[in-house]
Write a structure and sequence with these properties.
about 280 residues; single chain; disordered N terminus; mainly alpha
Length: about 280
């Protein structure tokens, strides 16, 4: 009896090189589809920061005074921090999906696929960053309430800076979610880390002198908030800025470095085995 041997499969070099990017794009698209099927996430990510902006603006507005920027109201001062807070919330919600994927077995299927693990990081971070950027831009029209008007160049600069912040915070959330097995533990860590990181970034209150100024200078999120504040100030009627802000160049360089470092850390951590791995 003659047997017919099956010829080995030959993978085209172009297809082999495209496979990681195809996997990353598929994971990114999956995050977008998951978001479209869960519209309540929009209310969760935008609703609470918007409520903070309205309530704190009404409460602190009558007593707020910024030396050197007398025409700046608290709602105008707090609005850049509110946009960053939307990015922060969305990054947290997106990173939780990694823990859910591990629990449901989807992550294990991705890990045994013949693609490098950086493709997993790229897909998850890209999807989360796009969602964070989209939801921050959805809140941007609220600035019209106090006369915010942005030209095309300022809007493009704001979009790019918010995208860098979204990448940095999503990668940071990915790094923690990769090592944490439960959603409860992830929420606890994020509450202890990310909220103080945001509050000490100059988003909630201005740091005038002392230790808070130094903390804001070493806080990478502070440069992102300052950069957003500088861009929005150009479209505000008063056009005034708090004293002591980092330069525009420093804001861009520090935010880009923050994003690059966090993506690198997330990619390095993804190369290590976890409890959910099948390797």
């Amino acid at each position: 009896m003659s047997t017919t041997s099956q010829a080995p499969r030959v993978v085209e070099p172009a297809l082999a090189h495209a496979a990681p990017w195809l996997a990353a794009g598929t994971l990114c698209w999956r995050e977008l589809v998951r978001f479209a099927r869960q519209p309540n996430r929009v209310a969760a990510a935008i609703g609470q920061p918007a409520l903070f902006w309205i309530l704190f603006g009404a409460g602190f507005g009558p007593t707020f005074a910024m030396p050197g920027a007398e025409g700046l109201t608290y709602r105008e001062f707090f609005f850049p921090g509110t946009l960053v807070l939307v990015v922060l919330f969305t990054s947290i919600f997106t990173s939780i999906s990694l823990i859910e994927d591990r629990r449901e077995g989807f992550l294990q299927s991705v890990l045994v696929a013949p693609v490098p693990r950086w493709a997993l990081v790229a897909g998850k971070v890209a999807g989360g960053a796009l969602l964070a950027l989209l939801q921050a831009l959805l809140l941007l029209p609220a600035g019209w309430l106090f006369g915010l008007r942005l030209d095309a160049a300022s809007f493009l600069a704001l979009t790019l800076l918010l995208l860098l912040l979204s990448i940095a915070l999503t990668a940071l959330g990915f790094a923690f979610a990769w090592r944490i097995d439960s959603s409860q533990g992830f929420h606890a860590v994020m509450s202890l880390l990310l909220f103080p990181l945001w509050m000490l970034s100059g988003a909630f209150f201005p740091a005038q002198s002392g230790l808070l100024v130094w903390i804001e200078r070493v806080n990478p999120l502070g440069y992102g908030v300052a950069g957003v504040r500088r861009i929005l100030a150009a479209g505000m009627p008063a056009g005034s800025l708090p004293a002591g802000l980092p330069s525009a160049a420093s804001c861009w360089l520090a935010t880009a470095a923050f994003a690059a470092i966090m993506v690198w850390i997330a990619a390095r951590l993804a190369r290590r085995a976890t409890r959910g791995d099948l390797l």
